[in-house]
Amino acid sequence: MPQHRSAADLPYADGDFYSFEALLADKERDRLHEVREWLGREVAPIAVDCWNRAEFPHELVPRLAELDVMSPIRRQGHSSLLAGLLHAEFTRADASIATFMGVHDGLFTGSLELLASEEQKAKWLPEAYTLEKIGAFALTEPLGGSDVAGGTRTTARREGDAWVLNGAKRWIGNATFSDWVVVFARDIADDQVKGFLVDTTLPGYRATKIENKIALRTVQNADITLEDVRVPSEFKLAHANSFRDTNKVLKVTRLAVAWQAVGQQLAAFDVARRYAVEREQFGRPIASFQLVQDQLVTILGNVVSSLGMMVRLAQLEDAGQARDEQSALAKAFTTARMRESVAIGRSLLGGNGIVSDFGMAKVFADAEAIYSYEGTHEINTLVTGRAITGISAIV
Predict the structure, then answer these.
(1) Does the pTM exceed 0.90?
(2) 90, 40 in Cβ contact below 8 A?
């Protein structure tokens, strides 16, 4: 009979095969463990049920505020490595809640931190950090995704002491219940994309939930319409005056999505490893079969390679040396590895891999959204290709 030990006796059961967490300072490592324990207690137990019902657990928001994880780098002074590992841990517990955080604390709060004036930041950021005000980020449009940089159709027109916005946005996370949304629109006067903080109670603003998703079902994505929405001039983000400015936000959040791909692979490894040692066939755990061990090791190898890339990129970020194309490669590479990992994990569970009760079906489906947003695999590949050839293959 093959010998096997409990997870408590295994030094590698958590998937951190090369001990990347050891690179953190002691206080940051303690913080990571604190957040991991909180996620295991507060998020993981409700994740599948919320996903099945496609409903967001609003009761979780005050508890998230108490956890105080908003803006770990700029506000709290933590390393990029801790910030990335925290985002991976959120994804490991539930990709939908991680995406909520990515939208509110990455895209929305990040837009204010990077593109607002000091006066605007002092006015808006405190309530964003405490989650008293929930934010959203509206860039993607019904007819514009990968080409939105040069094809933004939503317009902004200066009219006296206000800007008038008209257009539509799609796939806007949190937008069905957010208090604010950062909207990017093309100024008809100079043809430049500018950013605006929009109060979602303004006349002419409407958000409609997108139904029937197969991924990130807990995330409340919406179609937004803007019909002559009058935004006071002081709500135009002071430093959001071109798409080049918008890209400052996307560079950072693209990294966060690459960390999500790490977290999703860790989730796949968790479910697959546990299932393999507990599930018995032919009178013994399926983990005793060579092909199953090969599958687990392939997932683990993908996790380790993705983590290694992200750890180095976090170091470059802290040194102020990270480049856009490095973020693009990270997002393309880690999400490709993720797609393979979750597919292997689903296969390992057999028929139980397509039932959300066992966890892997949710991990498998959510990976598809992570693969696509914050720049598709193809676009990020071409951004990287342009960097190494000097020739653009993007029209």
Answers:
(1) yes
(2) no
